[in-house]
Amino acid sequence: MTDIIIVGAGSAGLSAAIYALRAGKSVKVFEANTYGGQIVNTPDIENYPGIKHISGFEFATGLYEQAKDLGAELVYEKVLSIKNEDDKKIVYTSSGEYEAKAVILATGAKNRKLGVEKEDEFVGKGISYCATCDGAFFRNKDVAVQGGGNTALEDAAFLSNYCNKVYVIHRRDEFRGDHKDVETLKAKENVEFVLNSTVIELIGETNLTGIKVINKLTNEVKTLEVSGLFVAIGQEPDNKSFEDVVILDEKGYIKATENCLTNTKGIYTAGDCRTKEVRQLTTAAADGAVAALAAASYIK
């Protein structure tokens, strides 16, 4: 019997592990892939209080090592479902089952797809959801980024250092991302904004050679000859496996109060997978701390 099982080893999950361990509880952290979550793909973090600059990978590694040194056990198994019993929670994974007194769901969110024809076919052949992972493959080529948030702006800035031309396509005329990043991109000669527009068609046979975008105000359709399209239109949660024990909203996020409580006693949630207004690195860490302390108090 483990005191607290945490599902997800991203910023929220690892922060929860640190606080739970410091509260004297035993902790297992389950992760289907690798630790760190989406932040590992960010080349430079500038908005975390107290740290001027740090790479996402370095930040995630620091969290992981801190949790591990405190005694966290990281288990690389995918959690398939959870059964709630009065005195315990049974966590079923791809390799077995585990018991805990409390559970924290910190599953994060995955990249949202465009939903256009050939998108899956062109993944790895021109379509990417991670500029820092794949940007170097498009050195001296023309590419496009679809999106208007911080991730899209960061992707465009990163790609502008490698690529000949970077089109930033956004469905509105104003960006949701930080104003500072928008101004930085405006100053770059090889970056062009394509506003009030969205991608409607992918062009190419075996690899992407271009895209068609439509202006939502004028209905004008134009073709951009690009070798790469980086999709950064937000994220969506992957909480379907837990709908038997927690209530999800219409978008699939776990409904929770600001103290990270779900509708089920002993089950908490933290990070991007839960209902909330702001999804940032700082709020993920804060959620992890709040959920861990709530779970520790519940066990007492």
Characteristic terms for this protein:
five-stranded parallel beta sheet, 300 residues, alpha/beta
How far apart the termini lie comes to: 15 Å
- The helix/strand order is EHEHEEEEEEHEHEHEEEEEEEH
Query: Which stretches are low in confidence, meaning pLDDT under 50 for 5 or more residues running?
Result: none
Please tally the helical runs, counting DSSP H or I stretches of 4 or more residues.
6
Oligomer, anyone? single chain
Helix content estimate: 10-25%
The helix-and-strand class reads alpha/beta
Count every beta strand, where a strand is a DSSP E run of 2 or more residues: 17
Mean pLDDT: 94
Mind summarizing the main beta sheet?
7 strands, mixed
Radius of gyration: 21 Å
- Strand share of the residues? 25-35%
Silhouette: elongated
Could you explain the architecture of this structure?
The structure is a single chain. The chain is built from six helices and 17 strands. A hairpin with a 3-residue loop joins β12 (197-204) and β13 (208-215). It starts with a strand and ends with a helix. The longest helix has 19 residues, at 281-299. Strands 1, 2, 3, 4, 5, 6 and 17 form a seven-stranded mixed β-sheet that branches. The chain has a five-stranded parallel β-sheet with strand order 8-15-9-10-11, with helices on one face. The protein has helices spanning 11-22, 56-70, 131-134, 150-160, 179-186, 281-299, and strands spanning 2-7, 27-30, 73-75, 79-85, 88-93, 97-105, 109-111, 127-128, 142-146, 165-169, 191-194, 197-204, 208-215, 221-224, 228-231, 235-237, 267-269. It has 300 residues and is an alpha/beta fold.
